[in-house]
């Protein structure tokens, strides 16, 4: 009774077709794979300890010894950039996973129950959406304090409302479908209908948006770290590295340029991959 309909998650053949039609998606996939590998094997790849200070070599420009130069404490920029990849991917992935789970549950419940409950929930979500993502994240992070856990919570909260809206729209349509009505006729409860019949038929939309919003989460993490509300120093993060580079922009351009490029490449990879996933679940594309 819970057979997938047209909006079911894309099959491997659909993914291959989408990647074949969108050649840039291979670039995104390759970039993301490299970034993930760098994060996993950071201790093996980084040439120096990212926390090791060498005042004698402070603010050294890129050279054979320090490929991306050193910062104002003499720490190797390349090593800090590599370890910063771990922070960005961890924060982005966990925050989006939390937001996707909670937001999808809220959206499905609101869309299925409908009525006054739906109006109240959507009204609260509209209030959250009225705040710019960065401003809302800044407010929450400032209240919770600077730490990795609080940063993840702050970013997750900012992304719950968009996920809830994405999940609600198909739920309203799906709950009128014949296979859902048949489930009710057989005596299935609301929890089973939402979890077994509705969720599998709209999860693909949510997954696609998660890849795109993970890019947004990484940008938000960098922005909060830039203003001092991210992971406390001396832990290397791309946002804190850019802040230090901004303070020394006239004397040490490499401090801000290289972490900015890292953010750019990561966001680009996620967006290109998200486009391919979106094409893979497009019913018109799969019908061709």
TrEMBL record:
Membrane topology: Multi-pass membrane protein
Predominant localisation class: membrane
Keyword field contains Transmembrane: yes
Annotated SUPFAM superfamilies: MetI-like
GO cellular component, one term: plasma membrane
Entry keywords, A to Z: Cell membrane, Membrane, Peptide transport, Protein transport, Transmembrane, Transmembrane helix, Transport
Domain of life: Bacteria
Compartments it resides in: Cell membrane
Transmembrane segments: 24-46, 89-114, 134-158, 252-274
GO biological process terms, semicolon-separated: peptide transport; protein transport; transmembrane transport
InterPro entries documented for this protein: BP-dependent_transpt_permease, MetI-like, MetI-like_sf, OppC_N
Limits of the ABC transmembrane type-1 domain: 85-274
Family note: Belongs to the binding-protein-dependent transport system permease family.
Protein name: ABC transporter permease
Organism: Microvirga brassicacearum
């Amino acid at each position: 009774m819970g057979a997938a309909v047209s909006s079911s998650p894309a099959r491997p053949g659909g993914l291959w077709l989408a990647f074949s039609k969108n050649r840039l998606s291979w670039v995104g996939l390759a970039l993301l794979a490299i970034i993930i590998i760098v994060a996993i094997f950071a201790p093996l790849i980084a040439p120096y300890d990212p926390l090791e200070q060498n005042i004698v070599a402070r603010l050294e420009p890129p050279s054979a010894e320090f490929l991306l130069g050193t910062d104002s404490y003499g720490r190797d920029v390349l090593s800090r950039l590599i370890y910063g990849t771990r922070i960005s991917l961890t924060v982005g992935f966990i925050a989006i996973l939390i937001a996707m789970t909670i937001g999808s549950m809220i959206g499905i419940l609101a869309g299925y129950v409908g009525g006054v409950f739906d109006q109240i929930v959507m009204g609260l979500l509209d209030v959250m959406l009225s705040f710019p993502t960065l401003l809302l994240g800044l407010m929450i992070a400032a209240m919770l304090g600077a730490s990795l856990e609080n940063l993840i919570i702050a970013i997750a909260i900012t992304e719950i409302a968009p996920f809830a809206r994405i999940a609600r729209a198909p739920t309203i349509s799906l709950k009128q479908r014949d296979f859902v009505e048949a489930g009710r006729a057989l005596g299935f409860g609301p929890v089973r209908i939402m979890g077994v019949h509705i969720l599998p038929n709209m999860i693909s939309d949510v997954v696609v948006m998660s890849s795109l919003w993970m890019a947004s989460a990484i940008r938000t993490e960098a922005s909060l770290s830039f203003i001092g509300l991210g992971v406390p120093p001396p832990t290397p993060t791309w946002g804190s590295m850019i802040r230090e580079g901004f303070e020394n922009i006239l004397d040490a351009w490499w401090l801000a340029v290289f972490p900015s490029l890292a953010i750019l490449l990561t966001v680009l990879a996620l967006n290109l991959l998200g486009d391919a996933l979106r094409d893979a679940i497009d019913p018109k594309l799969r019908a061709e």
